[in-house]
């Protein structure tokens, strides 16, 4: 064993309080526990060191003696029992302190069986459901069928054959967990005989094989609220799998996916769409017709000289908000379509139009070309 100071081993100051000391010990014990470090032969020694340090410093009398004369008094047995019952570990039994830590390792004190009686809550279920954007706008009532488990009727969920009952486990005496002493430490494990239930079924129910539940399919009528968004879930309490041995049912979570739409993209309550505008209509101005997600039609006025990227807002034509019920907006982004597949006459007309254009007709193009000319002139002068 090293001569490292106990306070240094635990990473605390000499005026540490009981709560901080215990927290530091838990972190160190979890870090060096041999079960977490199977490939590190030094972990067990470090684990024992921090355990000894905590046993000393958690007891007020032992800590006072250690502060006076150091580790030697503690290791040579000169301090004896701390008096007043359990000794060490701040008045707790050592096995209780380590049970707290092992609970962190193995997921809690109750084990997989849920403690005395063995009744455990059923598992939660997930059901993926896909809808259209229109259905998300309007809301939807739907019938679904889910694979699940139900409480066994013949044994009423007990797992024991009708006319019999589960009996108390003789290994753990109904506790569901057993303790084993390994030198200085007391290890607590789930009872292997009853698997943590605390009871044993000697005569299993033939219908469920002792499980207390059976596989089944259940039909449900679900309500998809208007305004639901992609990825949101709906919780149906008590519609999950049946619990074992009479335990309560779990919950059903319906995860909603919304299909991509041909026209609209969604961002919260707002919708976005892109609308092509003929070249002439963008230049002269005019109107286009736009459908809305609610099924109506809206007329959009195109201003004279509209450019690609101009966004038009249709207030209240978006999606309903799931919380407030208020409608979002529909934003229509214009893009100017260049004419294609022109006839000879159309090309000739465009040439005449192009020759008649001036700097005021295409100001952005003229401004860009001026900047390009300035760039090349500056490069030529630099050479």
From TrEMBL:
Residues 139-217 form the CR-type domain. Binds 2 Zn(2+) ions per monomer. Residues 5-70 form the J domain. Zn(2+) 1 binds at residues 152, 155, 205, 208. Keywords: Chaperone, Cytoplasm, DNA replication, Metal-binding, Oxidoreductase, Repeat, Stress response, Zinc, Zinc-finger. CXXCXGXG motif repeats lie at residues 152-159, 169-176, 191-198, 205-212. Zn(2+) 2 binds at residues 169, 172, 191, 194. Its main location: cytoplasm. It comes from the Bacteria. It holds the Pfam family DnaJ_CXXCXGXG. Its cofactor is Zn(2+). It is found in: Cytoplasm. GO terms for molecular function: oxidoreductase activity. A zinc finger (CR-type) spans 139-217. PANTHER family: CHAPERONE PROTEIN DNAJ, DNAJ HOMOLOG 1, MITOCHONDRIAL-RELATED. NCBIfam families: DnaJ_bact, PRK10767.1. The J domain is necessary and sufficient to stimulate DnaK ATPase activity. Zinc center 1 plays an important role in the autonomous, DnaK-independent chaperone activity of DnaJ. Zinc center 2 is essential for interaction with DnaK and for DnaJ activity. Participates actively in the response to hyperosmotic and heat shock by preventing the aggregation of stress-denatured proteins and by disaggregating proteins, also in an autonomous, DnaK-independent fashion. Unfolded proteins bind initially to DnaJ; upon interaction with the DnaJ-bound protein, DnaK hydrolyzes its bound ATP, resulting in the formation of a stable complex. GrpE releases ADP from DnaK; ATP binding to DnaK triggers the release of the substrate protein, thus completing the reaction cycle. Belongs to the DnaJ family. Homodimer. This is Chaperone protein DnaJ. It comes from Hirschia litorea.
């Amino acid at each position: 064993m090293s001569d490292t100071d106990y306070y240094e081993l635990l990473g605390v100051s000499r005026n540490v309080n009981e709560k901080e000391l215990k927290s530091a010990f838990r972190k160190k014990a979890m870090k060096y526990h041999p079960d977490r470090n199977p490939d590190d032969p030094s972990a067990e020694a470090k684990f024992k060191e921090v355990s000894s340090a905590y046993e000393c410093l958690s007891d007020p009398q032992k800590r006072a003696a250690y502060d006076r004369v150091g580790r030697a008094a503690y290791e040579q047995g000169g301090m004896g029992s701390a008096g007043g019952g359990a000794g060490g570990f701040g008045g707790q039994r050592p096995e209780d302190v380590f049970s707290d830590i092992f609970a962190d390792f193995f997921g809690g004190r109750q084990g997989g069986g849920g403690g005395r009686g063995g009744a455990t809550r059923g598992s939660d279920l997930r059901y993926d459901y896909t809808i259209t954007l229109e259905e998300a706008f309007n809301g939807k009532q739907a019938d679904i069928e889910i694979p699940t488990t139900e409480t066994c009727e013949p044994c009423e969920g007990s797992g024991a054959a009708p006319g019999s009952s589960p009996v108390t486990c003789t290994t753990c005496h109904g506790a569901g967990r057993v303790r084993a002493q390994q030198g200085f430490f007391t290890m607590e494990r789930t009872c292997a005989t009853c698997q943590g239930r605390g009871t044993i079924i000697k005569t299993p129910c033939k219908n469920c094989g002792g499980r207390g539940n059976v596989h089944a399919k259940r039909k449900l009528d679900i309500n998809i609220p208007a305004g639901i968004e992609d990825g949101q879930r709906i919780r149906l309490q008590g519609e999950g799998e049946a619990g074992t041995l009479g335990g309560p049912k779990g919950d059903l979570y319906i995860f909603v996916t919304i299909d991509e739409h041909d026209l609209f993209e969604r961002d919260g309550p707002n919708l976005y769409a892109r609308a092509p505008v003929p070249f002439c209509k963008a230049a002269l101005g005019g109107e286009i017709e736009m459908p809305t997600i609610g099924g109506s039609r809206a007329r959009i006025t195109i201003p004279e000289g509209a450019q690609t990227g101009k966004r038009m807002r249709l207030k209240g034509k978006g999606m309903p908000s799931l919380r407030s019920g208020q409608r979002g907006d529909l934003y229509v982004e214009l893009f100017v379509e260049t004419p294609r597949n022109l006839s000879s006459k159309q090309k000739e007309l465009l040439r005449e139009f192009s020759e008649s254009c001036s700097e005021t007709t295409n100001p952005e193009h003229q401004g860009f070309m001026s900047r390009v000319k300035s760039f090349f002139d500056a490069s030529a002068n630099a050479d």
